[in-house]
Design a protein that fits this description.
The structure is a single chain. Helix content is 50%, strand content 16%. With 749 residues, the protein is an alpha+beta fold. Strand 16 and strand 17 (654-659) form a beta hairpin. Helix 15 crosses helix 16 and helix 18 (513-531) runs antiparallel to helix 19 (535-556). The longest helix has 32 residues, at 408-439.
Length: 749
């Protein structure tokens, strides 16, 4: 009889090994290669040369092993050559995708009015202001000439609500409008549209004034699978939801849960889900795929009695998941969950054991193989963080399944609730740093909010599936499930809205990349030593990690030196932060309440103190009054005196500010410029609405009199393009004069 004590000792002393995780090892090299290609300045030719050298070394090592070596494992030289080859290949691939554009592509037409012909390459995204899509361009008509090419462009067509013209994936259309380069980030630390677009191989965007400038031409270009299966299924789902559910936020939520349809929801709803950390249910993700996979497995369980039945079940499972991926737009989260499900079910079909972490890594590898820039997608990182948290942390919170059996209905309900809480906590531990890094917030209430919101959204999914199936045979029977779905959607929305109103539901927190890496390194160390039951090392790792985070955040990562003045770009609008060192004054607050959040972010980015006073220049008084500050200088007010600053309004649309160090003048319109002492300043902002010879003379005369150190000309919204070009030449010829850019901040130290 074997020694039971020794068996137990062997089980508890098992060492952690990467042997069962080949996909994890490969994924680590792939990630390093993509990061190197994105961040290092080596040209793609250099990466290709390194690929060739690594390939030669790999082939040489394999030939040597074949002829001379009798070892059961690859040589160290061969293994290193293989890893370097993978690393250099992905580095070259990502560098080429990010930094290279077609020589005869659309970039040469930027700044011109053109007519594009091509195929709609993704599902159009509808919003309150219009509809946007990506277009595979095949033909450009400009200035009477036609150019054949192959490039991609981002299109936006202005329209109130859904347009009269149907815009669908695969349609062949002609679109007329102005082609421009995709802009960079408007302010420091904000989303960079140009970088994000390059990750989708986009360099230009076209603005279309309305549906009358879009014309369908030719049959939609779809393959047989998309034309005869995906499109009819999508149309049926959309039509069923529209017929069976009344209009409103509940219908939009149901469409989002099923198909990923991003029809515009109210800003209040989006903000509520964001504050409560439950925004993940608004889009199709791994949760939806997991629920669908469970339903499919239940229906196909009878087929798994024989080997042929298991393979037939697996093929049907693959087909249904493939259709669902296409119906939902092939988002990274859906593809990742589908790949993981296929690996799990495929291993079961083959009778082999699969490791969840290795399956996740393999799914990530396949996704990055097709699109390496998914690695830099916040959604990719958040879903991986949440799934890894559940896979690695959740098992530490619960007992083995065998110890949880029995106990009656009440105890089972308690275990179910506890399991939901533990899964939520595990996912929050894994994903919170990524959310804080990209969005600057941490939801304190998310642990509690996720319980009802996820529960109701899960039940919503289970109600929607039979609704769709029954609607094939009886709309009356389907209406009962539709009513249930509507009620569950309403409960989901009300739960999110209620939790969002809890005080301090969300706090502002924005770590940098180093702090995020330190957090995950600490978490990995705790999990590793906890797995080996080395509790002393767990305590040492925790203390060491907390010390590193503390000293980096407060000692090695000092607060930036605040400038004397910085502008905040808010689209066509502009806000200005003027500081005396002790006090800060904010001039204007945009045109919407959300603009103040962007201004607050810039206060933090530049280390500027919160404003003591907010001054109206263009922003309505109603928004100025809502900005948290001690003083508010509204439109009718003419003077404000602070301990270190004085602000006066000599006349309408004219402001003058003095601090101990410098002065600032803001004037709207060249006709208000005067050659008086009050109109002299170190820095001047001048809004210009026309730039004809008369306005040029007025500005020149004032510049010769006032001689400001910096003069910023701000083009008006309707300034003719010809006048703008003249203004840019005017500024280039005069030192200290510049034209305001919507993607470049003005900083004065």
């Amino acid at each position: 009889m074997p020694n039971v004590e020794k068996i137990k000792e062997l089980r508890h002393s098992a060492h952690f090994s990467l042997a069962p995780y080949p996909a994890v090892r490969l994924l680590c090299i792939v990630i390093l290669g993509i990061l190197a290609g994105v961040n290092l300045s080596l040209p793609v030719e250099g990466w290709l040369h390194l690929c060739a050298l690594a390939l030669v070394a790999l082939l040489a090592g394999m030939v040597y092993e074949k002829l001379r070596s009798k070892a059961p494992f690859p040589l160290f030289f061969t293994s290193i050559s293989y890893l370097l080859f993978v690393f250099f290949c992905f580095a070259a691939y990502s560098d080429y995708q990010l930094n290279y554009v077609p020589r005869d592509g659309l970039v040469r037409f930027s700044g011109k009015n053109v007519l594009l012909y091509g195929r709609i390459a993704d599902r159009p995204n509808f919003s309150k202001t219009g509809v946007g899509w990506i277009m595979e361009v095949e033909e450009v008509f400009e200035n009477g000439r036609t150019f054949k090419l192959h490039d991609r462009a981002k299109i936006f067509m202005r329209s109130a609500g859904k347009p009269d013209v149907k815009i669908r994936y695969g349609d062949m259309v002609r679109v007329k409008g102005k082609l421009d380069l995709i802009p960079e980030a408007a302010n420091r630390g904000e989303f960079d549209p140009r970088r994000a677009a390059r990750m989708k191989q986009l360099s230009v965007q076209l603005f279309c004034a309305g549906p009358w400038q879009v014309q369908h031409e030719g049959e939609p270009r779809l393959n047989g699978f998309e034309r005869f299966i995906v499109q009819p299924v999508y149309d049926y789902i959309a039509k069923s939801i529209e017929e069976l559910m009344p209009p409103g936020e509940e219908r939009k939520l149901s469409a989002g849960v099923l198909t990923g349809e991003r029809e515009s929801m109210s800003e209040e709803v989006f903000e509520a889900f964001k504050l409560t950390g439950t925004a993940h249910i608004l889009a199709v993700s791994g949760l939806n795929v997991g629920l669908l996979a469970l339903v499919i497995q239940i229906f196909l369980q009878r087929l798994k009695v024989t080997t042929a039945g298991r393979w037939l079940s697996f093929v049907l499972f693959c087909f249904i998941l493939l259709v669902y991926c296409y119906v939902t737009g092939n988002s990274p989260s859906v593809k990742r969950a589908a790949f993981m499900s296929l690996v799990f079910i495929g291993g079961e079909t083959l009778g082999r054991k699969s490791y969840p972490v290795n399956s996740l890594a393999f799914a990530d590898f396949l996704i990055l193989l097709f699109d390496p820039f998914d690695l830099l997608n916040p959604g990719f990182l958040m879903t991986n963080g949440a799934v890894l948290g559940i896979l690695l942390i959740y098992p530490r919170f619960i007992d083995s399944p065998s110890s949880q059996k029995g106990g009656g209905l009440l105890r089972s309900a308690g275990r179910f609730l506890l399991t939901g809480v533990m899964i939520t906590i595990s996912s929050i531990i894994g994903v919170s740093p990524v959310i804080a890094y990209y969005f600057g917030t941490f939801s304190v209430i998310s642990i509690l909010a996720n319980i009802p919101v996820v529960l109701f959204s899960t039940l919503l999914m289970y109600a929607l599936v039979p609704m769709l199936l029954l609607n094939l045979v009886s709309g009356y029977a389907a209406s009962f499930f539709a009513a249930t779905s509507f009620s569950l959607a309403e409960l989901t929305l009300r739960s999110a809205l209620w939790f969002s109103q809890v005080p301090f539901a969300s706090i502002t927190l924005r770590p940098d990349g180093t702090e995020v890496w330190l957090y995950y390194a600490l978490l990995a160390a705790l999990l590793f030593f906890g797995y080996r039951k080395a509790w002393g090392k767990v305590a040492v790792s925790l203390l060491l990690g907390l010390n590193l985070l503390f000293w980096y955040s407060f000692a090695l990562h000092p607060r930036p030196v605040a400038p004397d003045m910085v502008t905040v770009n808010l689209g066509r609008n502009l806000a200005t932060l003027f500081s005396s060192g002790n006090e800060t004054v904010q001039i204007d607050a945009g045109r919407a309440s959300r603009d103040q959040k962007r201004i607050a972010q810039q206060l933090d980015e530049y280390g500027v103190a919160a404003p003591k006073a907010v001054i109206q220049f263009y922003t309505p008084d109603s928004l100025i009054a809502k900005v948290p500050a001690r003083h508010h200088l509204l439109q009718e007010s003419t003077k404000l005196v602070l301990p270190s600053m004085v602000i006066v309004r000599p006349e309408e649309k004219v402001l003058k500010l003095w601090s101990r160090e410098r002065s600032l003048l803001i004037v709207s319109g060249t006709s208000r410029l005067k050659e008086e002492e009050l109109y002299k300043a170190d820095i001047a902002f001048l809004w210009v609405y026309r730039f004809a010879p008369k306005q040029q003379q007025q500005i020149t005369s004032w510049l010769n009199y006032a001689r400001p150190k910096r003069c910023i000309l701000v083009p008006g919204s309707f300034l003719p393009r010809v006048h703008l070009a003249v203004m840019q030449r005017f500024a280039a010829a005069r030192p200290g004069v510049e034209v305001r850019s919507k993607t470049r901040q003005i900083v004065v130290q």
